[in-house]
Amino acid sequence: MIIFEDKQAVVFQSALFKVLSTVIFTEDAVIVVDPAMLPHEVNEIRALVDERIADRELIVIFTHGDFDHIVGYPEFKDAMKIGSLGMDKHANKREKVQLINDFDNEYYIDRLGEREYPEFDEVIDHDGQTYQVGSTKLTFYLAPGHTSDGLFTVLESHGIWVAGDYLSDFELPFLNDRSIAYKNTLEKAKEILASYNIRLMIPGHGSHTTDQKEILKRIHMAEKYIYALEEAVINKDMDKIAELGKQHPYPSSFTKSCHEENVKVIRHEVKKPNDN
């Protein structure tokens, strides 16, 4: 469903995982980010694009390779496709597609065409890399931590920042890459906020925000969780570790396993050579 709309952007929120998909309109292009997730939701996004695109270039950007963010790729294969080098060189592309198949099979979901991993026309390999069509300039920043292949996208002319699986209003950090990388990406987020006049920030899950103070609040919320978990792991404070795991507003076996993975990642990072 549409949760935000103005002349420059439309934000869709899926009924599943509160995944956010963004469509941005400029003079030269229509830019789609992470089209997701159920077939009728992806079709709604595509229908909006087809209705408004006229003779503009169609660009689709994937913020990272998690299956819930790439599931809509087949409906946008005709677009200029942009992703990070980490996505382009991902070692487990087949596994990502299989996760889509498994999900769809479990919930009896039919999709038109084959499930596929994105193939890219433009690969982002460094911070500040740009892609420009006409007067529309997109600026990209690598965003590892949640995954190793994350990507921030900024459209400075519109004050729009699409952050992928960071800066959610409710979702705790999932450290599927490394906690140090996640913390560095949060520092990068602060730099983006300080460098651009951001009027709209869209995370990967939850709700967008038009408030810069809210963006900073979300950065601090993520930092607070990570630093508290690091301290608890170092001190072997099992009660604190358990307490932090209960902070997610949608407790489930999935969020429990994500928290346990966070603990595992941090234990590995802080482990001393003589520790058992």
Description:
- The structure is a single chain.
- The chain is of the alpha/beta class.
- It has a single domain (2-270), classed as 4-Layer Sandwich (Metallo-beta-lactamase, Chain A).
- Helix content is 37%, strand content 21%.
- The chain is built from 8 helices and 12 strands.
- Strands 1-2-3-4-5-6-7 form a 7-stranded mixed sheet. It has a 5-stranded mixed sheet with strand order 8-9-10-11-12, with no helix packed on it.
- Strand 5 (57-61), helix 2 and strand 6 (80-84) form a beta-alpha-beta unit.
- Helix 6 runs antiparallel to helix 7 (238-245) and helix 6 (212-234) packs across helix 8.
- The radius of gyration is 19 Å and the shape is globular.
- The mean pLDDT is 97.
Q: Distance between the terminal alpha carbons, to the nearest Å?
A: 50 Å
Percent in helix:
25-40%
The CATH class assignment is Alpha Beta
Low-confidence stretches: none
The SS-based structural class is alpha/beta
Order of helices and strands: EEEEHEHEHHEEEEEHEHHH
- Number of extended strands: 12
Adjacency order of strands in the biggest sheet: 1-2-3-4-5-6-7
Strand content: 15-25%
Number of helices: 8
- Annotated CATH architecture: 4-Layer Sandwich
Major beta-sheet overview:
7 strands, mixed
CATH superfamily: Ribonuclease Z/Hydroxyacylglutathione hydrolase-like
CATH topology, which one?
Metallo-beta-lactamase, Chain A
